[in-house]
Amino acid sequence: MTQCLILKDQDLILISKVEQVETDPISGEPDCKLTDPVRVYFLLEEIPHGKHTKDHTHGDEKEKHSKDHTHGDEKGKYSQGHRSEFVLERWPEFDVTDQKVVMLHSDAILTIVEPSKRLLKVYEDFIKE
User: Fold this and answer.
1) Which of 17, 86, 107, 129 could form a disulfide with 35 if both were Cys (CB 3.0 to 4.6 A apart)?
2) Nearest residue to 36 via CA among 105, 97, 102, 96
3) Which range marks the domain in which residue 103 is found?
């Protein structure tokens, strides 16, 4: 299953096919198998004012947002008036290894989340290359 992994000790977000591997906890062996791991970078682009706006209601107040701005896991998740574009890079970089399967300790992961449909499509196209 393809998941987004946010790692604990690094400013690092990965998208990868993830498989939990049975290991003896005492052995210290990695217990997550990542296939086609890719690092995700976000480029924020400011949305020009007046671009195809539509009304959104938040509680009692009505706000106008760009059509490209949505809440949650799609465009504009970081701040109103901005949208994100993805830049993907193989992880680890090809300068380090040509491997497309990497083992990782699950204790290095802060959280695992479902990728947005948009990110998933970009990822699937990227790994085909």
Assistant:
1) 17
2) 102
3) 2-128
